[in-house]
Amino acid sequence: MAYVPQKSTARSVVKKNGLFVLVQETKGHKAGLMNNPGGRLDWLPKQDRLETYDEGGRRETEEESGLVVAHMGLISVSYSEERDHVKVTLAAEHVEGELTTDSKKHPNVDVYSLEDMRRMHHARELVKGAYEAALIYEQGKLMPIEMTDYMVAAAIARPISLQSEQMLQAA
Question: Around Cβ 151, how many Cβ atoms within 10 Å?
Fold first, then answer.
């Protein structure tokens, strides 16, 4: 059986009508900042397994934004050995649903252009990495989604961030 980190999270960089979906964080050091929808993977007791990154990212996106999405590529994978935490960022397209702001955890949900996100990034209104992930998506520099588990295993074996070279250049 493969090693399962203490914490695994999936974020979805979602495009809806050519704009990027962002949600406002309300907890911890990210409170008040805008971020891509996402969060922790859930345990599926009936199936005796953890959600896949694809399943968790889709579920979290729907819970936080009201949108049903389809993932189309892998943007980045990072692993913190100190926190035993894997973060996966996936590119997604809006399939159906309308933006909703019902969530107490994310009271503000809206869409933004890449230029809006650039300004927000420089004003420090975005969570670190959100703008860079949108740049990678926009440039189409995605890894095949089928590579997700392999890239997670590689990141855990060698604790570094594995991401598109475009993300490194944009940072």
Answer: 21
